[in-house]
Structures are given as C-alpha cells and as structure tokens.
C-alpha cells in the first residue's frame, strides 16, 4: 500500500496535497511536445496496470509501483504519468480514493523524479554496466522514497498508526529489491536494443549530451 485511502487525512492536508500536485503538474508539463505524448501514455499504462495487482499483508497490501521505471524513461514527465495513472485507478476502481489523489500523486510522483535524477548520475560512471547499476538504484530508491513518505504521513496521524507505518515499511522491502532488479535489467536491456527510450538530459529540456 503506497496509497493513502479516503477518510484518513484531514481536509487541510488533502488540500495541500492537491495544491502541491497541481504545482508539480504545471512545472513538469510545461513545454511538453506532441511527440512525447505516446511515450508518456505507454508508461502511464504500465504504471496503471502494475499498481492494480495487490497482495494482502495483514491490514495493508503490497503491489508493484514502477515509479522508478517512469523516472528513467520519462524524466520530469514521470510525475505526469504517475498522477494520471493514480487518477484513473481512483476513478475507475476506487483504488485509494478521489480526495487523496493529490497526496498520492505527491507520494509516488516525487520519488519518480528522484529516480530520474539518480539515473542521470550514470554519466559519471565510465562502465558499460552503468545503466544497469543506476537503473537499479533508481528503481529501488523510487519505491523506498514512496514508502518512507507514506510511513511518515501515517506516523503524523498519531500513535494508533505507528505499527501500521512500521509494517508498511517492512513489507515493502521485497518490493524495493524486486523493482531495483526489474528497473536495472530493463535499463540495461533498453540501452542495448533501444537506447533512445532512456531519458537523456536534452529530452527534459535541460540540455546535455
């Protein structure tokens, strides 16, 4: 469960979530090009499907997140992809909830942006395996980041949520390792067969090689 459900957070926190998500959408959608839309749509579909398969663990559940994959493929557009996927899940399947779309988008979208920046660091490693290494770091860090943000939110809610926060963090350790492996291998594979799929500095409007 990297999602917060309806009825858990207070209205001011929900409003702050929508405000921050709106600001991030404005920043990450700015100057989007028409040729980027098919790629964004494809990754959004992958995030949407991956997060729908749940495995219950006590009072919570776990699922693949794939926000790290979005980060290494879309760069700053990853936030848009995650936000749209979460909105579709909430509207079509009541996954999470409508009122928490903003908070959940921030919870999963900010770590996706972190994954992008981590993956950009591969340029400083002169190794043919750098995409695998930094892809793995990006994939694991994205899920870890989302889990830590969610756990912190639960802790803020009070002592009643302390055990749930600890459980959320513990049960996501295997997911962190799985996604690190999946994203790392995916990055290495794409670098070998279709390197243009991986995000480059110039793809996000920041110049670069």
UniProtKB/TrEMBL annotation:
It is a multi-pass membrane protein. Its main location: membrane. It comes from the Archaea. The chain crosses the membrane at residues 7-28, 40-57, 69-92, 98-119, 131-152, 164-190. One of its GO terms (biological process) is transition metal ion transport. GO terms for cellular component: plasma membrane. This is Cobalamin (Vitamin B12) biosynthesis CbiM protein.
């Amino acid at each position: 469960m990297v999602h917060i459900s309806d009825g858990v957070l207070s209205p001011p926190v929900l409003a702050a979530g929508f405000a921050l998500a709106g600001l991030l959408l404005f920043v990450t959608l700015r100057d989007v090009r028409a040729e980027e839309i098919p790629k964004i749509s494809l990754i959004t579909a992958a995030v949407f499907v991956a997060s729908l398969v749940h495995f219950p663990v006590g009072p919570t559940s776990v699922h693949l997140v794939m926000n790290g994959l979005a980060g290494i493929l879309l760069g700053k557009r990853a936030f848009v992809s995650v936000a749209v996927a979460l909105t579709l899940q909430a509207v079509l399947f009541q996954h999470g909830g409508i009122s928490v779309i903003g908070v959940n988008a921030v919870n999963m979208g900010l770590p996706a942006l972190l994954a992008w920046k981590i993956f950009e660091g591969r340029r400083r490693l002169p190794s043919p395996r750098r995409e695998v290494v930094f892809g793995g770091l990006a994939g694991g860090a994205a899920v870890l980041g989302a889990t830590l943000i969610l756990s912190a939110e639960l802790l803020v809610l009070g002592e009643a949520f302390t055990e749930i926060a600890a459980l959320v963090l513990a049960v996501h350790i295997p997911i962190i390792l799985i996604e690190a492996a999946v994203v790392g291998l995916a990055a290495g594979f794409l670098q070998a067969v279709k390197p243009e799929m991986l995000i480059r500095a110039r793809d996000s409007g920041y110049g670069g090689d």
